[in-house]
Amino acid sequence: MSPGERGEDKAEHYVNPKGFDPKDVEILTREQERYYQAPQWKIIWWKFRKHKLAVLSAIILFFFYLCVPFAEIIAPYPVAKRNVDFLFAPPQAIHLFHEGKLVGPFVYGLNPSVDLENLKWVYETDTTKVQKIRFFCKGEPYKFWGLFPASFHVICPAKDGTLFIAGTDRLGRDQYSGLVYGARLSLTIGLVGVSISMVLGVLLGGLAGFFGGWIDSSIQRVIEIMRSLPELPLWMALSAALPITWSPVWIYFGLTVILGLLDWPGLARAVRSKLLSLREEEYAKAAALMGASPSRIIVKHLLPGFTSHLVASATLSVPAMILGETALSFLNLGLRRPAVSWGVLLNEAQNISVVTIYPWLMAPVIPIIIVVLAFNFMGDGLRDAADPYK
């Protein structure tokens, strides 16, 4: 019995009225070829830019890292400039309108006085002193990178005026300028420390994963011992061992070496696990049968297979380095004046009574939180983009 005789409905046959367009197939084929023939880094970039939060984090980090080479130009004051008439000055609010008229970006002047009853500085806003902010101007002289005399700034206070966007500290040093200069050390110490960690992690993890045997066992025992030690006390002990007679430059490099030496075990284990699986692949065995040396097999054949994962892991390790330097400098075991980092600036806020009276001394916490979150979000985006199964 046919379907019609049984009373069943017949499925309608749909025909596209537009007909077949060979150009659509050609475009689709070209896009597929473009994807499958693209190098690995380009595929990762296509995936990464779809991660909006990671892209936004990368843009934020880009602007933060502009402070590294151009700190002197961005900051309105030299980092050691003391405004002796404005100790513990509060942040000056930026205004656009004065008495209903558009004046442009400006701040009101401050009238300092001492509260002898509560033993603190008191500042009254003087609305009669309208101090227009200058842009792309000549201001306090400085030495660019410590080499070239210059006086050009992106932002400057008014003539005979002040511009304390984030207040001042106990010696009248501008906090905002300190934050800009502090980014130079706090942000680069993470990159240098991760570079040291990457070299050690890839080298030792590669040896353990490729050769196995007693080499693998020895390296794994060292990793287990290092990971069993409490991290912060170990940082403190090694930092305290640095000679106090060292210059800030040597202290900086000493801290980067310490942070890099203590961070490699996690990366080494990741490299080992990858190499254990990749060394059994046919292309790795073929290279060995053709007489390639172990170093060539690791560098030319195995490492490129998970370089993207190494980059993502390194990106996620930078925040730990920044927080490590901040903690050590806050405890006065890391960088010290005249070197300036976010941890050194936070050292001014160790006294809780001072913080309650002058809360703007906690301003370095804000860029630390923003940078750490941005690195974490960007690292998550890179890790997802580098995952071949996503």
TrEMBL record:
The chain crosses the membrane at residues 53-77, 187-211, 232-253, 310-331, 352-375. Residues 183-379 form the ABC transmembrane type-1 domain. InterPro entries: MetI-like, MetI-like_sf, OppC_N. Pfam families: BPD_transp_1, OppC_N. It is found in: Cell membrane. SUPFAM superfamilies: MetI-like. It is a multi-pass membrane protein. Keywords: Membrane, Transmembrane, Transmembrane helix, Transport. The keyword Membrane applies. The keyword Lipoprotein does not apply. Belongs to the binding-protein-dependent transport system permease family. This is Peptide/nickel transport system permease protein. It comes from Pseudovibrio ascidiaceicola.
